[in-house]
Amino acid sequence: MKRARQESIPDKIHRYRAVVLAVTVPLFLLSLFLFLMPRTPTTIAVVRTKQRPGGYAGSKSYAVIFDAGSSGSRVHVYCFDENLNLMHIGDELELFEQRKPGLSAYAEDPQQAADSLAPLLEKAESVVPKELRNKTPVRVGATAGLRNLGTETSERILQAVRELLQHKSSLKFQPDWVTVLDGTQEGAFQWVTINYLLGRLGKSYANTVGVVDLGGGSVQMAYAISEGDDEKAPKALNGEDSYVQKLFLKGTQYYLYVHSYLHFGLLASRAEILKVTDEGNNCILGGYHGSYKYGDKTYKASASSSGASFSKCKDDAIKALRNNEPACTHMKCTFGGIWNGGGGDGQKNLFVASFFFDRAAEVTLLHNVFLTTQMYTRLVLHKFISSSRPHQVGFIDRDKPMSNVKPADFEEAAMRACQLNVEDAKAAFPLVQADNLPYLCMDLAYQYALLVDGFAIDAQQDITLVKQVPYGDASVEAAWPLGSAIEVASSSSS
Ligand SMILES: O=c1[nH]cnc2c1ncn2[C@@H]1O[C@H](COP(=O)(O)OP(=O)(O)O)[C@@H](O)[C@H]1O
Ligand SMILES: [Ca+2]
């Protein structure tokens, strides 16, 4: 048998050259490709590590703001880019959650008050990316409800809320971020919110809009005035909030007239009106005999035998506005001896929010959605159906978050509501909550009196009722927390 010849290494390479080439060439090409490729990290979508305070990471910063209102608690979460534009949180431009009642309903039990915020906190945290939570500030602003309770009780509640945030939250938190907002801050934040969403910040004061925010406990008026008018503003006396605040926004100096009227929010005003009326009330819908509780006081709320009367009820609302009015020591006053700010271009476009919108929406129905034939007939009978908007009853466009109306629309709606007894009103206004029904005439008459007699707005002036303001591809709540978040985000990203 012929023995195989012993091959040398060069011979072997020569014999297997095809295999060697087939293995080494692709390997060489692969290494060359990897060598020339741009050096990107292999992990996916890393959040940039350079982070500034205020939940800032790369180009995003978050802010969580609790609105502890007198009639309910709400949480808003906003996300801003580095130019302070709102960015998406899911499909929306904010997270907004609410629950009732507000903190002041738990005056006797601060722990329960704080616990009422826990579900809102959980929801808010869930939309902030985990790695940003300890950089994201959480603030709580309480408004008229806690202002009414007095310092000791409200401080106990705020302390319980601070403990909740300290122990149950992973957000960035400082004890002095949980406060009772003063009314002028609240009004100023509301003005910033609406003007920001409308894209008016950075423009001359004359191109901004004025705002009225009718809460449950207080109502705020805020609008920008000229520098010259600021110089003429009456100086605040000791203990009074100053009438004008200076705000520097988007490179522009604004002089903002703001006043908050405690006890003149919609729910508080009912108590004021019930106080000035005697036995049979002119505002309570016919057939209702009960009582109204506001704060820790209860008022008799009983209809007169002839039912409600719009004109008498409006007079009572005006009496409540003027009740114990101190002399007007300023050039021109609204009510309560308060300077009216002098008016001007910053007030010519007025955006009117909160309960103004809510009540208007509740007395507006789409025929096809809500009305039975019997109800329709009743509404025609009472002339509820307006020829200018034949597709609906009432005066706003229910499908839109903003509507152009006139103060006179509230008068007209009040006149119609006041004619009804409580049973008929229930059928005519299925959207009005049962516990608000007896007060429907009172609420609408007060809203009209507040605008026309309180703030001296012409009954025929165009005003905008607003709940949300369209911004980008979504709408954002027209409420003060956005103004507060803008302050937080701009101070932490500068
Ligand atoms: O985010 C919001 N969007 C629209 N309306 C709001 C928002 N938050 C509160 N409101 C409105 O504010 C009114 C309640 O006032 P609130 O309870 O805040 O009283 P207060 O401001 O006197 O403390 C309601 O009409 C409610 O719909
Ligand atoms: Ca409010």
From TrEMBL:
InterPro entries per the UniProt record, alphabetical: GDA1_CD39_NTPase
Any one GO molecular function term: ATP binding
GO process terms (BP): nucleoside diphosphate catabolic process
Listed CDD domains: ASKHA_NBD_AtAPY1-like (cd24041)
Annotated keywords: ATP-binding, Hydrolase, Nucleotide-binding
GO cellular component, one term: membrane
Family: Belongs to the GDA1/CD39 NTPase family.
This protein's name: Apyrase
Organism: Zingiber officinale
Phylogenetic classification of the source organism: Eukaryota, Viridiplantae, Streptophyta, Embryophyta, Tracheophyta
